[in-house]
Amino acid sequence: MADVQTIARHIPDRLESRGARLIKSWETLLVAVALAIFLVNSFASPYFLDPWNLSDATFNFTEKAMIAFAMALVIISGEIDLSVASIIALTSTVMGYAVQLGFDTPALVLIGLTTGLLCGAFNGLLVTGLALPSIVVTIGTMSLFRGLSFLILGDQAFTGYPASFSWFGQGYVWWVFSFEFCLFVALAVIYGIVLHKTNFGRAVYAIGNNQTAALFSGVRVGRVKFVLFLLTGLMAAIASICLTARLGSTRPSIALGWELEVVTMVVLGGVNILGGSGTIPGVVLAALIMGMVTFGFGLLNVPGIVMSIFIGLLLISVIALPILYRRFRGRRSH
Amino acid sequence: MKLLLKNREMLLVVAIIALLVLIAVRFPPFVAPGNLANVYNDTSILIILALGQMAVILTRCIDLSMAANLALSGMAAAMLNAAFPGLPVPLIILVAVALGAALGSINGLLVWKLDIPPIVVTLGTLTIYRGLIFLLSGGAWINAHQMSDAFKALPRATLLGFPLLSWLSLVIIAIMVVVMRRTPLGRAFFALGGNPHAAVYTGIDVGRTRFLAYCLSGTLAGLSGYLWVSRYAVAYVDIAAGFELDIIAACVIGGVSIAGGIGSVGGAVLGALFLGVIKNALPVINISPFAQMAISGMVIIIAVAVNARAEKRKGRVILRKAEAAHG
């Protein structure tokens, strides 16, 4: 027993170098996929590389991507919000109603944001206050919010938005860069900083990895989750303002089925659907990929529903391929 | 009274009866036996689907692709009938059921063999199956005049005064009761949902059991595909769009825990009936049919809140017993 020796041994912080990790990362794979799609598109259609066409193409994904940022945080924290598309519908309906009452653009924006925040707060209260599973709660509020929109509108539509309001969906900040695209970039930066550089971001990861441990290390789990649902509501409201301004009208079926596209975007971006991991750059890349695929197929006259097959296959295969790859490598090393 | 409230199924029965009384005050003919039979018949397809979904949810999974599966199987059946009107209807039903089972098994295989989270798998296959209907039909509708009379007549044929559709759902309920309570597979669903790790040690193959649950939900979705298309005598890309949420709602209202392991055939059936009564009652009591979505949303939220309270109470009782044993 006495001659047991302790040998000093260097234990590295990381098993791989920074560069090796970067090459093997999900984001690198996404960049490769995005480049491939970009190349295929530019060869397949001569109209793809036109700056104005590309600018138009950004409208395919900017609104969904704004929600995807907040959704990414919610999913990383181990929850999900399926009511986002219904929040868009309700927010748009309330703004349309306010137009009938004679409110002008600044008031409309304020009313829209408040509606979104209230919807988010309702979700957040049910999930954190009553400790209910978010997937069922938001399936319920998904019906409720869009149902309220149907109740207010029936088979009618709200139109007649002020001309200054349409700038949010149709305006350009500089040259080909639309307001929506600039907002998308700004939000990407903000969410990137919040998730990757702040205590709040660390708390989100901590909750997603082990909620009990997070609670015991002093993270206010309930409050963080409540804020996340508030943020999703706010983002859905911002997306709703952009979308309503772009379309110039509100129907109860506005943004129908978007929740699935937003979740697809987030998962495609490498966020673990079970929570605990994921990055904002990944979500940005996934948004670009989905936007380019939709736009490229559109130029080739592929119907929208066929694109959705492709998106579905993409969703399953990007998750399945790494699993298969890991399994294959595991087998070889044994 | 306390015992009554503790039993979920009884609570739902009371809620449905209360609902019927409220409706009867406004519109008495609604509760006539003949009309109630119609309401049941109208809810039959939802009941069949909810039973399939229940099996999946019990194993801690979810099947969002059921409505898309239904639409694809239904479209295949309708196109088969339109192309070969001479084909016997039972054969067409068999094709629809087999197709549904195959689509369900794809979900199951992805969950079992690749370990992809169920919500991601079925979110993906939901859009893929919907898209395949478009590829299959080219976006065209199959209308009533393109379907043979035998194809449309089967769910409407009456036996002992009730439509065959109602009888079929009763048969499926009976089969599911037996499967859930009297077979190893049914016990495996519950055991796996209750505690997957413990289930492994009792010799249950978790992946395989989940696969079988998806096969079951797919089979029932395929059958419902034929029933839906023949009952409404039309098939197009968007039939039953969004219905997957109604199916899950029926289960949640029926007390099936989304966390797995808790639920019953009776609960799922009553949950579906609750939604069916609301859906059929709104137009006759002069509430805008547009209110239906908002109401079912409220019902889901209330149901899940009540469920959670019931489940929590169970946990507390166990804890108290343990404390008593220590003391």
Short synopsis of the structure:
Chain A is mainly alpha-helical and 334 residues long. Helix content of chain A is 72%, strand content 1%. Chain B starts with a helix and ends with a helix.
Please characterize this protein's 3D structure.
- Chain A: Part of the ABC transporter complex LsrABCD involved in autoinducer 2 (AI-2) import. Probably responsible for the translocation of the substrate across the membrane.
- The complex is a heterodimer of chains A (334) and B (327).
- The longest helix of chain A has 30 residues, at 304-333.
- Chain A has helices at 18-24, 26-44, 51-58, 62-76, 84-100, 105-129, 134-153, 167-170, 179-197, 199-209, 211-216, 221-247, 258-268, 280-299, 304-333; strands spanning 172-174, 177-178.
- Chain A has one domain (59-318): ABC transporter involved in vitamin B12 uptake, BtuC, CATH 1.10.3470.
- Helices cover 72% and strands 1% of the residues of chain A.
- Chain A is mainly α and 334 residues long.
- Chain A has a two-stranded antiparallel ribbon.
- Chain B has 327 residues and is mainly α.
- Chain B has a single domain (2-326), classed as ABC transporter involved in vitamin B12 uptake, BtuC.
- Chain B contains 14 helices and 2 strands.
- Chain B has helices spanning 2-6, 8-26, 33-58, 66-83, 89-114, 118-137, 149-153, 164-182, 184-194, 196-201, 206-232, 243-253, 265-284, 292-326, and strands at 158-159, 162-163.
- In chain B, strands 1-2 form a two-stranded antiparallel sheet.
- In chain B, α5 runs antiparallel to α11.
- The longest helix of chain B is centred in the C-terminal third of the chain and has 35 residues, at 292-326.
- The interface between A and B is large, with 45 and 43 residues.
